[in-house]
Amino acid sequence: MEDIKPQLFKVTVDGIEVEVEPGTTILQAARKIGPDVAPPAMCYYQPLKGSGGKCRACLVRVAAGSAKDPRPMPKLVASCITPVQDGMVVENESSPQVLEARKGVVEFLLINHPLDCPVCDQAGECDLQNFAFDHGAAQTRYEEDRRTFEKQDLGPYVQLHMTRCILCYRCVYTADQITNKRVHGVLGRGDAAEIGTYIEQAIDNDFSGNVIDVCPVGALTDKTYRFKNRVWFTKPVDAHRDCPTCSGKVTLWYRGEEVIRVTARKNEWNEVTEFICNTCRFETKKTSDWTIDGPTQVARGSVITANKYRADLEKPSFGQRLAAAQYKPIDDKRDTSQLSIQQLPPERFAKAE
Amino acid sequence: MQLTNRSKQVSNKEMTLAEKMYLPAILQGLGITISHFFKKKPTIQYPEVKRYLGPIFRGHHVLKRDEQGRERCTACGLCAVACPAEAISMVAAERVKGEEGLYREEKYAAVYEINMLRCIFCGLCEEACPKQAVYLRHDRIVPVFTERDNIVYGKDKLVEKMDDRYVRNNPSVQATPTEPSLSRSVG
User: Fold this and answer.
1) Interface residue A141 vs chain B (CB under 8 A)
2) Residue A301 and residue A316: Cα distance in Å, rounded?
3) pLDDT at residue number B9
């Protein structure tokens, strides 16, 4: 009974080695290293049990299955549901095959996703937007009509735009696991699948507002925040209050002096750390309701930091990345010998009398 | 030692008799003056006559309407975030039933203001716009202000009038992925 400590597995992701416990998925191991090597995730959501394996955004190449059997896996695997083996070698963005596959995944996700980011409230904090910018192609090849749905009302607080849905099932798992009564799910199959509340029942559970936070796209949005402002003009502030139903730890989104939105706090993977109740989210929108903890840590290069001038301002990185991708060297070969300042002989300097 | 190779040697030799009389030089100068009487005048009488400033001049802002007269702007805020002078501000509103002929998208700018004292006419708003809604007219300049309270231009001054539509053809600009059906030429 002395050697209870489980043996740690050594995994290599993009050439960086990390030791993780058995049973960890490749995605979790990569996230342990850092955001540079972590694969993107559209459907996987750590707080929700059973999520993942649907969107194929996190495909990686396993170059060596394990130390005992170092053959590569025949196909790309979804890293969010594949457990690691000891001595596994994973290629994420270092493999051109993975990048090619992700390009295809973006294209498939965008087949039916409307390109209405200028209208959508999620723009700026949208997982699909980031994913498409990082891995997608600049041009669309799709010419057919996109699938459309009627706008649906899910109660007084939540707006469902079924056209934007990518069927990640995150909201379904949220309704299953966070609330005590599931009132919505996926109706239909295949191409006709859609999120619905079944006979358009209103969602009236205390924690139903969390489906807004878990939605990776703008399919489920906050009605009280609808078209109020763009994400990058608001200023996030951490705050808490004594709430009888939830932890009360939230992020307030300010425009000037006014709280225009309340969301749960999210970690660096855009995952909710603690789910909050509807009273906190929708009904307490005054600064006097809250105790301010301080400004939210926003990732450098996030568009949320745009136009907030500080001495150590770093511009959003997408512009720099776009410029780097479109960089063309210019021909700068010309005679520059006359341009440099030439040293004058010492007799040209006036002598002190 | 020389700093550049453009310096010239000055000659200091004695002038000839013709040069000492100065008359040929004066006549040559007069000839140049008289020849200008018969040349085309380069001066333009500015307020009455205006020079064509080229197809890429950046002047008065315009919020375009589409072919059916609907406002293109959807208040996405990309112009405001691109604006280096922070001159643009807007308030969005949701289109209600019956306004489909007025606004193109389900969201529109209820208020759209440009502070013309802040604006530096860099054209970044035009570049940022994903809906090809905001343009800087090449044929009209923002007039000089006389009153301090008409510096902030609202939608009444910015939205294109249907009888005064703005046209500019610039084939070098490609269509954006969000509006694949449109070419960038405005018409």
Assistant:
1) no
2) 4
3) 83
**Is residue A142 in some structural domain?**
no
Q: Domain for residue A129, yes or no?
A: no
Fold of the CATH domain B61-158: Alpha-Beta Plaits (3.30.70)
Q: Residue A89 forms beta bridges with which residues?
A: A12, A64
- A345 close to B (CB below 8 A): yes
Report the percent of chain A where pLDDT is more than 90.
Answer: 31
Task: Report CB contact under 8 Å: B77, A117.
Answer: no
- Residue B87 to residue A226: CA distance in whole angstroms: 24
Residues of A in contact with B180 (CB under 8 A): 140
For the full predicted model, state whether its pTM sits above 0.80.
no
Q: What is the residue range of A313's domain?
A: 229-318
**Total of domains in chain A:** 2
Q: How far apart are CA B1 and CA B125, in angstroms?
A: 52
Distance CA B182, CA A86 (A): 54
Classify residue A285: in a domain, yes or no. yes
Q: How far apart are CA A310 and CA B18, in angstroms?
A: 73
Out of B1, B77, B180, name the one closest to residue A233 (CB): B77
CB A216 within 8 A of CB A42: yes
ipTM: 0.72
- Under DSSP, is residue B26 helix (H, G, I), strand (E, B) or coil? helix
Residue B186 has pLDDT above 60, yes or no: no
CB contact under 8 A, A118 and B93: no
Query: Least CB-CB distance to B1: which of A226, A306, A344?
Result: A344
Q: What is the pLDDT of residue B118?
A: 92
Mean residue pLDDT of chain A comes to 84
Q: Which tokens hold the place of A89?
A: 């070698």
Helices A96-111 and A127-135, interaxial angle, to 10°? Answer: 130
The CATH code of the domain that includes A69 is: 3.10.20.740
Are B117 and B151 spatial neighbours (Cβ–Cβ below 8 Å)? Answer: yes
